[in-house]
Amino acid sequence: MICQNLFCIYWNQNQCTLDGITLDIRGSCEDCIYITPEESYLKQKREELLYRYELEDSTF
Question: Is residue 60 very low, low, confident or very high in pLDDT (cuts 50, 70, 90)?
Fold first, then answer.
């Protein structure tokens, strides 16, 4: 089963690892359990991406 929710604990390489899921009336997965990355991790990744973006932007 294809899944695009990278922040669900059941996500693995665009696939849901559950055998079956329940959908709500809007078609959203009711079995999804979200992970919340630590703020320090998010800060580090934001800084890395900003640096990469600014580096790429300055090459044009």
Answer: low
DSSP state of 59: T
Distance CA 49, CA 38 (A): 17
Note the pLDDT tens digit of each residue in 37-51.
Answer: 999 999 999 999 999
CB atoms closer than 10 angstroms to residue 60: 4
Q: Rounded CA gap, 31 and 16, in Å?
A: 10
* φ, ψ of residue 56 in degrees (nearest 5): -65, -40
Report the C-alpha gap between 49 and 2 in whole angstroms.
27
